[in-house]
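Posting for a labmate who doesn't have an account.
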Amino acid sequence: MTPSPAVGFSQTFERALVLCAHTDDEFGCAGMIIKLLAEQTDVRYLALSRCEQSVPKGLPSDILEHECRRATAELGVPSQNVAIDRFKVRHFPEVRQQILERFVQINQTYRPDLVFMPSSHDSHQDHHVVYQEGFRAFKHATLLGYEMPQNTISFNNSAFVMLSEDELKQKISALAQYESQAFRAYASAAFVESLARVRGLQCGGVYAEAFELIRWIIR
């Protein structure tokens, strides 16, 4: 008996949404953003807070918004696709219904087929609200939870995206736009590269990003 030919499929995404609690949370998926844009995917970015209360003393309260816009431009996201809201940092649990309604409105008008969000293991209260309400609003899309090691005890790295050296360099260059956050250990180029090397080793490459596979929908 002649075996039946294998049935194959390729997964492509038309519309991708990057959900961030705070400006700079795209640390966990910047490489994937670069790859999607290279494939002509329509990528939109939303940060719910510009974190005025967390800005180092002596700097303008809106500095993180300006840095975020420079960082996303470095990644290649069109300026008109970048939205930065004014929810108060560390107070998301108090306004989770408003956040859910924001997400529902985006889903109704944009209908992304791929959504990036904080992982279910993220311990930051704002990130956890984005994960929970993001799942409710976008449960009919493929959902990937990005990695933020500073906030996790464990991480279910069940999906990997390999990065080229040029893509990693572009990611590091974009994240370097957050000059006000350079004092944070996770913002250093050395840390970003070392994590990419670890994830690359785990998936048989040189550099990679790891994601929690929350939901995968094949269309």
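Reply:
Got it, the structure tokens are right above this. The chain has a mean pLDDT of 94.
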